[in-house]
Amino acid sequence: MRKLLITFCTLTTLVLFVACSSKSDSPKQREAEEEKESLEAKKLLQGIWVDDETGEVSFRAAGDTIFYPDTISQPTLFRIVKDSLVLVDVGAKYPIVKQSANWFCIKNQNGDEVRLQKSNDPIHAFAFVRDQPRVQTYTEVVKTDSVVHYNGARYHWYLVINPTKYKVHTTSYNEDGVEVDNVYYDNIMHVSVFQGAQKMFSTDFKKQLFASKIPQEFLDQSVLSNMEFTKVDTQGFHFVATICIPDGAACYKAENTISFDGKLTTTLIEY
């Protein structure tokens, strides 16, 4: 009887100890388990993957990074956590339906299955050979100017397009419905107007100058892509600025009117 009592007490103490330990460590432990990466799954993903239906190259996994074959999609760090592919840089997560050494199937943001197979064709490696991402902005300073006459007076305007290193990140989806992050570079447009030797107007135009006219969400992903002189009339000199999301259909056009006393008025004319 004494032996049974000792055994019972020992078991009870052990159960209580385990329960208390589990209770005290459970939040952190659960969080650690949730964030624990599957290194085996990451190892299986290494290599070039092509679409099972079209045979087109989808991406290449090398180390901790996924690279895309197009020239504007930026590489992203990835992890595989709890049967999900996590694209760290874009904050996206895709459930893994099936994974093996040669097959990889995930669900995109629409819930559609994307089926990929690992490529052993050496020619697919050429899809990733490039020096740097292709940038859809100016790569050098562009200067234009012209002389115009109005009401017997002679005016001279100057326009300088200056490319910058200000990065603009845009989010898009590739053909497989996977979110990718693209990067472009913004521009600064300088406009000056002179009457003879007298400077009437001179300023740098940046896309932030249109913040009161254009939604901030659009501005964050857009570049000031162009500026052109259109006419001179009783109101003054008209320069039209184009603000676009690169490689997208959405653009704003803003008419900037410089009056003869050097005042600037901006009006949206097209979206």
Please specify the SSE layout and strand pairing:
Layout: H1 2-35, H2 39-45, E1 47-51, E2 57-62, E3 65-67, E4 73-74, E5 76-81, E6 84-87, E7 92-99, E8 103-107, E9 113-118, E10 142-150, E11 153-173, E12 179-195, E13 198-205, H3 216-220, E14 223-233, E15 236-244, E16 251-258, E17 264-270
Antiparallel strand pairs: 1-2, 1-9, 2-3, 3-5, 4-12, 5-6, 6-7, 7-8, 8-9, 10-11, 11-12, 12-13, 14-15, 15-16, 16-17
What structural class do you assign from the helix and strand content? alpha+beta
DSSP summary, beta strand count: 17
What is the share of helical residues?
A: 10-25%
Question: How far is it from the N-terminal to the C-terminal residue, by CA?
Answer: 89 Å
Proportion in β-strands = over 45%
> Regions with pLDDT < 50 over 5+ consecutive residues?
1-25, 27-34, 131-136
What does this structure look like?
This protein is an alpha+beta fold and about 270 residues long. It is about 15% helix and about 50% strand. It contains three helices and 17 strands. The chain has helices at about 1-35, 40-45, 215-220, and strands spanning about 45-50, 55-60, 65, 75, 75-80, 85, 90-100, 105, 115-120, 140-150, 155-175, 180-195, 200-205, 225-235, 235-245, 250-260, 265-270. The chain has an eight-stranded antiparallel barrel. Strands 4, 10, 11, 12 and 13 form a five-stranded antiparallel beta sheet that branches. Strand 8 (about 105) and strand 9 (about 115-120) form a beta hairpin. The protein is elongated, with a radius of gyration of 30 Å.
